[in-house]
Every structure is written in C-alpha cells, then in structure tokens.
C-alpha cells in the first residue's frame, strides 16, 4: 500500500494501481470516456488528464500508476484547462443534436460537456459526417456521434471474444464499425450499448420510444438462464421500455446477455393472453377470474379424487420459487404426485439410482462463478456453454485467459470464443468412456470399470486430457445442456462421477434455467409420482401446465402434443395465447411474466435472489403465486393465506443442494453404448418469452436454428 | 494457417506470403499481414477487395475486421481501381519547393485525368503522396516500385511515353 | 575543405558498396568477428558507445549507450533489436542512402547491438515505398548469412542471431517506436501509451530496443576506430559525424555527412548554396517537426543540438529544408499542416481533431477567407494539442505552425487582410 494525495486528501492505494481507480474509490470525480474498469487501458480520449506534481505535462489518470507520495490535482487550473481543451476537441466534430439523440439525458459526453465544455466553441469549420451501417436487429448505430473511445472495439476483442467492430482508417477518417455491412453476432453484443458513452450505439428496439428521464427503474432478476443476472427494468408508465444490467460483481459483473436484455419485447406482445378463458362445447369464452378459478378448482378436485395418479402437473423451470412452491403444495395437498419441471430431459434413470435429497445428483454448480475463473482445467461434457449460458461462458473464457486448459467432449465442434480443445464425435459417449478408462488405468481403478467402458478405444487427445486432469490442481467437469437432454444422461453422469472420484475434479451438472435449482429445492419433482416423460407416455387424464408450451418446451414435442390432445382436461396457466393450445386446452389462465410479479429465483450456484413486481400485470394477467393462493383456498387446503410473495417465501425451507457424485457407482453403468445425438436448443428458443422477442428472432443466432 | 486456402492465395502468391510468415516468431503469423496484403494487391492489378482481405484473414488466422483495419490504415493499399501505372507524385514540402504542384498540373493535363482517377484507357492513375524520403531528388514520384527523381516536364514525357 | 562522409557514407564513392566483398575489403565485419570471438564483452561495447557520445539519430537525440544499458541482457526469453528505417518525416532521406550504399554496415551494427542487449533476433522496419533500399538490405542479410556471419552458431561461436527486414505500407506514424512495434506485429501503427517502455514490453510483448538506421550503422565504425575518435569528431554534447539531408532551394541538394558542429553556412555551401542566385529566407533545420528559423538565425548557427536549440529549433533527424526569398511561407505551413493531419493515427482526441482543425484554418486563410482572429486561434489550437497526446506527432504538428507564426506572422496577416500572398499584386 502507498499513500498519495489527491486534491490535498490523503488516500491509501495499492501500489501500481491506476490513479483513476484510486480516485474513484475515494469518490473524487475524474471525467473519462475511453476508460472502463472491465476493459484494457487505451488512454486515447485524453479526457482524464490531471496535474501530477513534478510532471511537466498533464497525465492521463487512467494510465498513470500511483507511486508513494504522489500529489495529484484534479481541479487545478492545469488539470481543468487540459480537460476543457480535450472537451472542445471532442465536440468540434460531434453533432449537437441532443434533443433528438436517444442517449440524450444519459450521455456521458453531454454530462461532461456541461461541466467542462466552453459554451462557445471556436470551431467554425464543417462537421464530419459518417455514413451508417446496419449492424443487425439489436444495435442502432449513428456513427457521426462516435467519439472514438474504442470501448466497443475493446469489448469485442476482450470480452465478447470476437472482434466484430474495428476502427478503420486513420486520423479524422478513422471510423468505428464493421467496415462491411454485417450483423454483429455476439450473444453479449448489447453490452456495447451500455459501454458507448455517447449515442453512437443505442438499443434498436428501444429507439425513440422514451426519453431517459421519463423512465422509472425497477431492479429485478433476469429469467432466462441460471446466472440470475441482476437487471433493471426501465418502464415508462406501465410499459417496459428496456432492460439494462445492474452491477453485481459476483453474479453478472456488469454484463448481461442479449437474451436477458431484449426478451422484454414479449411482455407487450400481441400474443399475450388477454383474459381467463374456458372452452365450452368447442367454443372459447372469456370469463372472469372467479368463474375460471371456481371451474378449475372443481375439475381439479374431481380428478384428484378419482384419478390422482392420472393428473400431471408440469411447470417451467423459470417459474418463480413461490409459484413452484405453492403449486407443488396445492398438488400434493390434493394427493397429486406427478410433478416435474425437467421438461427437456429424456433419460430419467438416475431417479431410480438416487432417491431425491439435497445430496442427490442433480443440476447444481458446485463452485462459484468467480471460482470458475480460477480453475486450471475445465472439461465441458455435452455443452455449447457459449450459447447455453453466455455469462457462465464468459467466466470460463476468463479462466482460459488466466491460463486454464479448456476441453470439451461434444457430439460436434462448436464455435467457442476462446482457445480450447474440442473432442467432437457422434460417438462422444464413447470418448468420455475412453477418458474414464484412461483415468482408471492411470489411477489404479481398472477393476471398477464396467465392461463396455473397459473396452472403449482411446486416442491420443483423450490420453492427453486424462493426464492433464490427473496432474492439474483445480479441475472442473461440467455437464451442459446437451448432456442433460441426452438419452444417455445417466451414463454421462456416471462416467463423469468416476472422473470426480478418481481425479478429485469438481463435478457440476450445470443448471440451465433461471430457477432449475429452486425447483429442486422446493421438491418440484416426482418424488413419489411420474416424471415428465412417464406422464406423457402413460394415460394422463388431466394436465395443469404452468408457464410452458408443451410442443416446444418438452423433450419430445410431438409426444407432448399428442398427450395433451388425448387428455380429458387441460389447464394452461400461461402468459401467452396460441392457436396450438386453443386446440387441446380447456382452460387458459393469463399469468404474469417475471416483470409483473414479485418472486425469487435460485441461481446456478445456489444464490437466492428475490425481486419485486416491476410493472402491473398487463391485461387481466395475475402473478402465478396469487392464483395458487386463491385456488388453494377454493380447494379448502391449509396454508394458502399469504398476502405477499415474501410470506410465501418464508414458508419455504430451502436446503442448499450439494450433490454427492461419489455415491454413484460406475459399475452400475449399463451394457450399452448406442448413441443418440440430442440437439443443442437454440439460444433464442429456450422459453416462451424469448421466442416472442422479434429483435432476438431476427439475429443470426436465431436464424441459424 | 489453413492449408486448403483457395482463391488468390495459392501457388506463387502463397509461397511469397509463406516466406514472410517464416520471418516472424512461429506463433505470430499476423505479422505478415502487411506483406500478404501487398502481395495479393499486386496479384490483383493493384487493388484490394473485401474477398481478398477475407482470404488474407483466413490464411493468417485473423478476424476479418483486424485485416480491414490494417488495410485501411496504410496509404499504400488501394480500395478503388488504379491504372496499370499508378503515378505516386510527392507533393510534400521539399518537392513543393521545387515545383511539384506545377509538375502535377502538367501530368494531369497530359494524361487528361484528375488525382485519384484512372485514365479512360485504364493505363494511368495519379495519386498524390506524402514525403517519400527522396527529397534530395525533388520533385519526384514513385511508379511501381521505382523512384523517379529530379523530374521536370521533359523527364516526365520520357518516362510516361516509354511505358506500355 | 569540409571533411565529408567519414562514417555511414564512407563507402558511397565506391562502385558496388552494397556488396559484401566491398564491405569486407574495407574492414567490414571485423568487429563482429571480434565480438563472436569473445574479444568484446557487452559491457565493453556499451562503455565504448557511451564514450563516443553518440546520440540517437532518429530525432529525439537520446544517448545510445544509455538506452542499451536499460536492457536486461540476462532476462530469459526472446528479446529484439529493431532498426527504424521508416524515414517518413518530410525533408528526411538520409537513411535511404545508408540502406542503398552501406547496408552491410547496418547489418553489422544491428548484429552487434543485438548481441550487446542479448537479443535473439533483429528486424529492420523499412518504409514500404523503399523497395530498392529494401532489396539492398535484404540482399545484404542473405550475403551475410551465406558467409556464415548470421544464423545459428555463428562462426562456431555458439551464438545464434537472426535478422530480417519488415516492410511498412505507408504511414509516417510508424516511425514512432511503439507504433513501429504495433505495425511489426501486424496491426495498425498506433502508438502505445508509455510506460511500459519497449525495453520491458516491446515487440510481441518482449524486451526490445529501437534505434535509428544511422545510429546503428555508426556502431561498427565507432568500435573500429574507438569511442574517443568518434567523440572528438563532434562537439561537447554530441559526438561524431551526422548525416544531413539537405533539400529545397539549393543548387545541389543531397546527403552530406559532416561533423557535428559544422557551421550551417558550410553545410549550405556544400549543397551548392541557394539556387538561382537567390537569397536565403528560412530554414527548417531538423525535419518538418522542428521549428522553422529565419535565414539570418540559421546562418549564425552550427549544426549540433545545442547551437540549433539556442537558435530556437531542434536538430531532429538532421533534415535541412532550405527556403529562398521567393517562398510563400503560408503555403509552406499549410502543406506541413496537411501532412500532420493526414498522418495522425487517429487514436487520441487532441491530435485527431486538432490537426484537422489547424489545417482547415490555414487552408481557409490561403483561400483568402481568413479572419483576423485566426492567428490567435491557430496558436491556441496548437497549444491545446501540445503535451496532451500519446506520442510526439501531436507536438510535432503544433511546432511548425507556431514557429511559422512566430517568424512570419506578417505573411499570414497579408493573406487575411488582402486575400493573397505577399507576392501577389492586388
Ligand atoms: C511521429 C514520430 C515519427 C518518428 N519517425 C521516425 C523515423 O522515421 N525514423 C526514426 O528513426 N525515428 C523516428 N521517430 C523517433 C523514434 O520514435 C525513436 O525515438 C527512434 O527511432 C529511436 O532511435 P534512436 O535512439 O537511434 O534515435 C519518430 C518519432 C515520432 C514521435
Ligand atoms: S498524438 Fe496523434 S499520432 Fe500520436 S498517438 Fe495520438 S493520435 Fe496517434
Ligand atoms: S479515460 Fe484516460 S485517456 Fe480516456
């Protein structure tokens, strides 16, 4: 630690840290445009010039390391003078069109100009105009406003891991852009909107729809993956206008995925279900909630009394903790045990091996997001992590940058945005078996191998990986979506468990959805009943579907659709209307999206995050938990008297999950090795909301499905 | 580097680029990008295209935009058609002091072409350039890879009339 | 008679000075062989260079011996010696003739420098337009390699050293040493913010020393004839000879290698004096980035750092631009200002925006649309750029403008008041 003086104030700082960081921590404001704490230092805007005692020239605070005894003046005539000079230069070619600029009101340039700009510029020459290019459906460009801070370019190189924007040309002709007309395709591209200090890169869907000062901020949690990104909904009146990240270093740092940023479009889509509806003799009728719920309660009661094991309750894994809890409580109160949230899973054999408990093998990230950054070797099994959970992939990318070896065993080679070794084969299960075999040989566990594993072939890549896994200190094995939806999920988990047992690797089945972990914690599982697949393939008279579209969200969409059609009575609690469900369902109940309800999600590493209602439910929609509360009472069940979501939550006893893979025995692995290749679920098809975001659907990623 | 690159980078062009790649540390093929761009530009009649830049990017394992950045930063790369003979006339101070402006006017008139344009027959184009480091022979120009110094109208006539 | 061409240009009068045979016949590669034989230690070399009092010839005049001592020779991993043959500053053409007429001396100088700082390889960054000089240098490398003077286990010494040429592609800024490094790495030539300095983080992130062509080409002769010999050719604050590139309104423009401290008027005389029998009006003594001086001041100075500094300018790269009494100084200033505008790399705000601004104002004045306040404005804009940028280009752009205004303000005023130059009748 060293001591420096800024404007006479003594500040302690770590030696070598940059002056601007030290000043930030001491709440001493230094203007800046190019500097960003998450990006490399460019020192090109020159806005942060300050006076350092003894230095002949003003120094850029962003690139000046502190030394003991340094005396800094940020407000002296020299410092202010330098800053004003730079400001004037920045403004000579910047359009003064704040009134029509989407950044107006939250523009870093505008803010700094008010303080540092001379009101009259001496510049009388013509201003530069830069032709715009279309870079896709998410980001609007107006490059005449660009101040060349290169934050967006550095973001591409350093964070997104794909350089899509660059600075072409030189001098005044330097232009930021893609050079040729091309859609930006990073799954995190929207962060450039936040990084751009001016109105050069703005949100295309948000364009011209509101002025920043008309917006109210509502902090909440993103619902599309298991990061639990902290976000802020910006609403004008009751309309969500945009979503931006909230900083939370241990969760999402300062970033969010494009999926979390742009899915809000679905909230006000025309597809929203308007009002409760009941099908009467093939005709849909709008009804009020009272009528609808009384009807549903009657039917539920009747089916539960007569055929409790022929009622199926399916819920989306991004339903809130409160919703899932009350739903399972209601179902179980009626004696219904067929409950599942594992909609896309096709192989449930593990359930038989492992009775449910917090120790059962189930999706849970067995290390923190930060912790992932510090691994020495990470093996992905059945995962295109980049498109499954963009921000988790970002952490893994950072691990790679710190020197971790990254490997994947996958059915095909995927486009990752960092250096790694991909072992890709349609026989990928056998590749994993080969790895286990090699590890067994090297660690003296040969005798524990089932025959099919002992017979698997091993190539040099697998051999190298085995050796490295044994030698490396911190090793993580992570099973992704492809593994979890595969018909050999059981074998994949069991083989991975051997790796854990014999190399000391940390093993995780990566939770995919916003509340995958929470759903398990509240026991939204067929503890005594049928799993999702069994419900669909056996006789089920009644379904209650919460927040899903069976034909799209279940492993076998066709099977699901047929099951719904064959059922006698189907209730869909959903935010969205659709032709498909009108065909088979009997009751449709409009449910709030995440923005219109209070609730909680438990993220991949087990962190519970609660949020409040951001906007009032649109149309006649109601938060799911309220609906279950009413239904519970109508059904005469105990424990449905909560008046707010927090009360529901306090009703839930959450036990942290800590799956114990060691209890799985490799020897139980079956004598088969037929390979079924499951598909990667498209990043923009994972749930009903993202499927209804036009901007996301117009990206190259969505189209590549 | 992808061995199976097609298009411009094959045969002689490829082996010339490979020689440049070999000069740099083995994990730094990108260092050869300037040479590669020059070589493909020469092979393409003096002009780069997006397809060529993409090919260079692919060959050297770079992202295309990183190649566009380089190709638009340096003044010797051309993104518009040039004449078979590109006359690069220095107009910087030392040449200017010795009459480059007048000489340039003479050349424009003689060839009936403006700076930055190509003659109707595609034979010539004129480009003004910054100091080429031959001020002792001012005024001067570069034609192809050669310098022509101590120019006057008569010398310009000789040079231009002698070209195919 | 003025003693000429004692070091870098010492072979220029020969028929094929670029041939290895000619070079060896004239004492070439002797020092390199001594070095390989272990007769000259790195420390001895550095000491000798320090004694010689040679200052970097690239423009900044930094003492070369001191620069070399910054490199940690013993640090593991690759290290590089880079030669700066980018020679792009208007008025400068001295290095071109070293490459063309004495490439082997540069090769030898680079190898000795490389050995001294512990480099594993060297690169000569040659501006892209210098095709003939590049070929000469490249051939020299090939010849040296064939002669076993370069490559692996050179002459059985156990020492490996590689040397290559790199060609630029048209960008003055690549003469700035960190831009040069970026360019060598296959990127845009945008200067890096320092620190870290190249000595710790240079080419491909490895310790690197950058020296000018003339600096490195001087090394073999300094070591052959002794640091004291070299030092005594020069003046107190700078040893040796210096290559001056004389251009503009002289009868015999060209390169003249003369001793440091040679009176300017002797140099002018060597270049044949002012052409067409005219009078001397102004001199830019060190290349476009140095301040212009009125003729009388120049005639009174000597060609060395201190004397030129006393006159109000800088020796720079030794590029002497001579202007006669028919010169329109506003036009000259406009031309230089366009150059810096065109060549700014574009990364830092004051340089990117300010150089264009200055050019536009001068251009406007030349078009007869100047305003009285423009002169103050020009000074002002220059001042706003100076000292607030990453590299020296910004300052280099401001210097000519302020010096032209200092000495020739009346010519600007004439344009503003009358819409034309002092030579035009109205
Ligand atoms: C804008 C700019 C252009 C430069 N151009 C050259 C050049 O063309 N050749 C050169 O040797 N040095 C040039 N320099 C100086 C180099 O940065 C560096 O100081 C020099 O190569 C060091 O060599 P020396 O110590 O032998 O002089 C330039 C500097 C700046 C700021
Ligand atoms: S001063 Fe000019 S040339 Fe130098 S780094 Fe800044 S913008 Fe680039
Ligand atoms: S913030 Fe320091 S130079 Fe831009």
Structural notes for this entry:
Chain A is α/β, with parallel strands linked by helices and 705 residues long. Chain A is built from 26 helices and 26 strands. In chain A, the strands form seven sheets. A seven-stranded mixed β-sheet of chain A has the order 14-13-24-23-22-15-16. In chain A, strands 2-1-5-3-4 form a five-stranded mixed β-sheet, covered by helices on one side. In chain A, α8 packs parallel to α23 (624-634) and α13 (428-443) packs parallel to α17 (489-503). The two termini of chain A are 53 Å apart. Chain B contains seven helices and four strands; from the N terminus they run ααααβααβββα. Chain B folds into two domains: 11-73, Arc Repressor Mutant, subunit A; 85-161, Glutaredoxin (3-Layer(aba) Sandwich), CATH 3.40.30.10. Chain B is of the alpha+beta class and 164 residues long. Chain C is built from 17 helices and eleven strands. A five-stranded mixed β-sheet of chain C has the order 6-5-11-8-9, with helices on both faces. In chain C, strands 3-2-1-4 form a four-stranded parallel β-sheet, with helices on both faces. Chain C is globular, with a radius of gyration of 22 Å. The termini of chain C are far apart. The model of chain C has no long low-confidence stretch (mean pLDDT 97). Chains in contact: A-B, A-C, B-C. At the A-B interface, β7 of A face α4 of B.
Q: What labels would you give this structure?
A:
heterotrimer, B: 164 residues, alpha+beta, Arc Repressor Mutant, subunit A, 2 domains, four-stranded mixed beta sheet, C: alpha/beta, five-stranded mixed beta sheet, 17 helices, 13% strand, binds flavin mononucleotide, binds iron/sulfur cluster
Summary?
The complex is a heterotrimer of chains A (705), B (164) and C (426). Chain B is α+β, with helices and mostly antiparallel strands. Chain B has helices at residues 11-21, 33-43, 50-60, 64-73, 93-97, 100-111, 153-161; strands spanning 85-90, 124-129, 141-143, 146-148.
């Amino acid at each position: 630690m060293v001591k420096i003086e800024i404007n006479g104030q003594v500040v302690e700082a770590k030696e070598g840290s940059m002056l601007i960081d030290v000043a930030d921590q001491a709440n001493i404001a230094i203007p800046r445009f190019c500097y960003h704490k998450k990006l490399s230092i460019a020192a090109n805007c020159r806005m942060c010039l300050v006076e350092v005692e003894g230095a002949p020239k003003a120094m850029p605070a962003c690139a000046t390391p502190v030394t003991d005894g340094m005396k800094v003046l940020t407000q002296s005539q020299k410092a202010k003078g330098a800053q004003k000079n730079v400001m004037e230069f920045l403004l000579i070619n910047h359009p003064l069109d704040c009134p029509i600029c989407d950044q107006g009101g939250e523009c870093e340039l505008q803010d700094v100009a008010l303080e540092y700009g001379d009101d009259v510029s001496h510049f009388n020459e013509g201003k530069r105009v830069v032709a715009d290019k279309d870079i896709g459906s998410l980001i609007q460009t107006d490059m005449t406003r660009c101040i060349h801070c290169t934050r967006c370019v550095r973001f591409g190189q350093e964070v997104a891991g794909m350089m899509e924007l660059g600075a072409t040309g030189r001098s005044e002709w330097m232009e930021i852009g893609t050079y040729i007309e091309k859609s930006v395709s990073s799954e995190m591209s929207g962060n450039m909107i936040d990084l751009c200090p001016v109105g050069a890169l703005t949100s295309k869907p948000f364009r011209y729809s509101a002025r920043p000062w008309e917006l109210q901020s509502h902090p909440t949690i993103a619902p599309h993956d298991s990061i639990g990104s902290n976000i802020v909904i910006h609403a004008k009146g009751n309309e969500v206008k945009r979503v931006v990240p909230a900083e939370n270093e241990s969760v999402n740092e300062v970033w969010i995925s494009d999926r979390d940023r742009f899915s809000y479009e679905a909230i006000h889509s025309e597809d929203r279900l308007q009002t409760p509806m009941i099908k009467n003799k093939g005709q849909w009728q709008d009804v009020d909630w009272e009528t609808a719920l009384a009807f549903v309660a009657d039917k539920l009661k009747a089916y539960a009394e007569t055929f409790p094991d022929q009622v199926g309750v399916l819920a989306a894994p991004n339903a809130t903790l409160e919703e899932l809890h009350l739903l399972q409580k209601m179902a179980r109160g009626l004696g219904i045990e067929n409950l599942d949230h594992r909609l896309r899973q096709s192989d449930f054999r593990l359930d038989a091996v492992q009775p449910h408990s917090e120790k059962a093998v189930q999706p849970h990230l067995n290390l923190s997001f930060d912790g992932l950054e510090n691994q020495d070797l990470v093996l992905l099994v059945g995962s295109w992590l980049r498109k499954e959970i963009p921000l988790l992939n970002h952490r893994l990318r950072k691990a790679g940058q710190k020197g971790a070896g990254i490997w994947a065993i996958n059915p095909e080679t995927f486009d990752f945005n960092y250096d790694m070794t991909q072992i890709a084969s349609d026989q990928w299960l056998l590749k994993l078996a080969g790895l286990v075999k090699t590890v067994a040989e090297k660690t003296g566990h040969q005798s524990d191998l089932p025959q099919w594993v002992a017979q698997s072939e091993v190539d040099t890549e697998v051999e190298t990986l085995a050796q490295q896994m044994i030698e490396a200190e911190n090793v993580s094995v992570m099973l992704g979506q492809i593994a979890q939806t595969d018909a050999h999920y059981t074998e994949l988990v069991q083989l991975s468990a051997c790796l854990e047992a014999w190399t000391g690797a940390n093993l995780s089945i990566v939770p995919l959805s916003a509340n995958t972990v929470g759903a398990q914690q509240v026991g939204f599982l067929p503890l005594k009943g049928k799993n999702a697949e069994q419900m669909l393939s056996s006789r089920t008279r009644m379904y209650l579907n919460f927040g899903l579209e069976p034909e799209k969200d279940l492993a076998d969409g066709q099977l699901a659709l047929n099951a719904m059609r064959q059922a006698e009575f189907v209730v869909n609690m959903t935010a969205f209307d659709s032709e498909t469900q009108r065909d088979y369902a009997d009751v449709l109940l409009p449910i709030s999206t995440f923005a219109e309800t209070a609730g909680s999600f438990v993220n991949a590493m087990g962190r519970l995050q609660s949020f409040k209602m951001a906007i009032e439910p649109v149309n006649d929609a109601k938060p799911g938990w309220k609906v279950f509360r009413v239904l519970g009472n109508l059904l005469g069940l105990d424990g449905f008297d909560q008046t707010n979501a927090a009360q529901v939550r306090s009703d839930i006893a959450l036990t942290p999950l800590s799956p114990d893979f060691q209890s799985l025995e490799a020897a139980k692995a079956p004598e088969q090795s037929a390979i079924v290749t499951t598909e990667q679920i498209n990043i923009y098809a994972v749930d009903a909301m993202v499927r209804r975001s036009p901007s996301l659907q117009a990206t190259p990623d969505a189209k590549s499905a | 580097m992808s061995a199976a690159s097609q298009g411009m980078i094959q045969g002689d062009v490829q082996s010339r680029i490979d020689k440049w790649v070999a000069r740099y540390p083995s994990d730094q093929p990108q260092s050869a990008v300037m040479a590669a761009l020059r070589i493909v530009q020469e092979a393409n009649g003096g002009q780069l295209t997006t397809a060529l830049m993409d090919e260079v990017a692919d060959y050297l394992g770079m992202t295309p935009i990183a190649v566009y950045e380089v190709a638009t930063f340096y003044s010797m790369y051309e993104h518009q058609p040039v004449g078979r003979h590109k006359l690069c006339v220095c107009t910087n101070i030392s040449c200017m002091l010795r009459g480059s402006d007048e000489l340039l006017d003479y050349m424009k008139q003689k060839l009936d072409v403006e700076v930055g344009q190509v003659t109707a027959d595609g034979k010539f184009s004129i480009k003004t350039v910054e100091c080429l480091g031959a001020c002792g022979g001012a005024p001067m120009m570069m034609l192809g890879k050669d310098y022509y110094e101590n120019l006057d109208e008569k010398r310009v006539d000789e040079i231009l009339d002698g070209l195919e | 008679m003025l003693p000429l061409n004692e070091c870098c240009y010492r072979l220029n009068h020969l028929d094929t000075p670029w041939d290895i045979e000619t070079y060896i016949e004239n004492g070439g590669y002797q020092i390199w062989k001594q070095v390989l034989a272990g007769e000259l230690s790195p420390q001895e070399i550095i000491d000798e260079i320090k004694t010689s009092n040679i200052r970097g010839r690239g423009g900044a005049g930094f003492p070369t011996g001191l620069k070399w001592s910054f490199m940690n020779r013993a640090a593991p991993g690759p290290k590089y010696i880079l030669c700066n043959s980018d020679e792009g500053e208007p008025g400068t053409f001295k290095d071109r003739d070293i490459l063309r007429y004495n490439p082997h001396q540069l090769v030898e100088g680079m190898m000795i420098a490389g050995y001294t700082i512990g480099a594993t390889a060297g690169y000569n960054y040659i501006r892209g337009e210098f095709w003939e000089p590049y070929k000469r240098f490249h051939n020299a490398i090939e010849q040296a390699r064939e002669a076993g003077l370069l490559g692996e286990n050179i002459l059985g010494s156990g020492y490996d050293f590689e040397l290559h040429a790199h060609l630029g592609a048209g960008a003055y800024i690549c003469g700035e040493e960190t831009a040069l490094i970026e360019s060598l790495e296959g990127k845009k030539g945008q200067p890096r913010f320092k620190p870290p300095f190249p000595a710790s983080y240079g080419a491909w992130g490895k310790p690197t020393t950058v020296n000018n062509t003339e600096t490195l080409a001087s090394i073999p002769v300094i070591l052959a004839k002794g640091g004291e010999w070299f030092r005594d050719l020069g003046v107190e604050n700078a040893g040796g000879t210096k290559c001056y590139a004389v251009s503009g309104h002289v009868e015999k423009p060209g390169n003249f290698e003369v001793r440091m401290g040679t009176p300017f008027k002797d140099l002018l005389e060597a270049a044949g004096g002012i052409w067409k029998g005219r009078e001397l009006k102004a001199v830019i003594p060190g290349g476009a980035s140095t301040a212009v001086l009125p003729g009388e001041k120049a005639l009174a100075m000597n060609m060395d750092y201190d004397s030129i500094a006393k006159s109000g300018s800088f020796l720079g790269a030794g590029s002497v631009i001579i202007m006669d009494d028919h010169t329109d100084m506003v036009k000259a200033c406009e031309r230089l200002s366009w150059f810096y505008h065109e060549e700014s790399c574009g990364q830092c705000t004051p340089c990117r925006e300010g150089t264009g601004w200055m050019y536009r104002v001068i251009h406007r004045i030349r078009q007869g649309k100047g305003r009285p306040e423009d002169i103050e404005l020009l000074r002002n804009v220059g001042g706003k750029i100076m000292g607030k940028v990453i590299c020296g280009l910004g300052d280099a752009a401001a210097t000519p403008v302020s010096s032209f205004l200092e000495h020739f303000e009346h010519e600007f005023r004439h344009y503003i008041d009358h819409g034309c130059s002092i030579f035009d009748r109205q």
